[in-house]
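FAQ: What does the model actually see?

It sees only this:
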Amino acid sequence: MIAGHSTAALLSFEGPDRYSSVGGLGSRETSFAHALADAEVETTLIFVGDPALPSLEAAGPHLTLRRWCQWISEYHPLNVYDGEEGKVADYSTSVPEFVANDIVAPAASRGERVLIVAEEWQTVQATIALDTLLRARGLRYAATILWNANNTYGFDRIDWGRLQSAATITTVSRYMKFELAARGIGSLVVPNGIAESLLEGPPRELVALFRGALRGKPSLIKVGRFDPDKNWLQAIDAVAELRAQGHTPQLIVRGGKESYGEVVFGRAFSRDLSIERIVADGDDAHAIAKALAQAKADVVHLQAFLPDESLAALYAASDAVLANSGKEPFGLVGLEVMAAGGIPVCGATGEEYAEPFVNAIVCDTPDGRELAAYLHASIGDERRADRMRQAGYATANRYVWQNVLEVLANKISYVARARQA
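And it is asked to produce this:
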């Protein structure tokens, strides 16, 4: 139970399916749902799921997955955001009825309250509609409704007045709190969490496999969408600067299908960096390792969907993981890297857990020379690297969901008292 709530509903576009997991939100929702279920809260995750999978799935003793908008997703097979506008409209009209009828009403009849957490701009209309519906049916007292901002995407599409009346607004970092405050919106901060199982680290044999494939050369990993906000050009420029200083780093990238990728590889070409593309079955770790061992280019474009274990093993095997976004609301990847035993390179926005040269490398600018200078000071210094890996692992321990749920419970208790006043 979380602050008097034995039932919860999570409303999100992203979720655990490969189809539904585009960014960090999919990872957040999946681990958040499992954490609530582990706390014996009957949890329903309502997300835009893979149209080929069951609409209803029991994912554990206390966790139910509800895949929504599947009839639309059949015509938009790319990912959760393919056909987004139609999905938002369908989600906004159908989810409130389901939550009110099938989750809140039964809980109210048992004398229980329901915790409802909606995520991002796509669920705003559903949140407002749910509040209106519950009030009309005299059930609003049985629900605590939170709407959480993980990013500023879609902020210009939100009716903030109506949303503030319908829900308590939360966010994931002080950085995002100030982003909301700049728009005149008050919010409560509840940080992101990671699954405690991540602290077990990737399989040692998998880490050894990838370390062998990297052949002891300075190896940098960058994973993410091809988007200017991710500071891809800083990463490319840093590799070029390091090579000019006599280092021989190799940058392994796994991006998306976004057109900005052409800009990234164009920058590499203009900086006289060699480029090699690897297409492989991500489920075959040995095939990935063999391909990486044979790659000799400065920039290796790995085109494969990597399972979590393989991704974590690459994090641990590399010298640094470039999560160097210019605008990062929280930086979940940085914590995942720390939990895996890797060293993250972060920006200086929402990654409040990152301490420069203590548990991470932190860049204040998008200048490749800054990143190169910090990597130059770190590469080859095994004692410093070991200290940073150990400190990072200790930091990751502080952000497991068990600890974050305590923060959430205290915030919910405050919300309950504030709304009664």
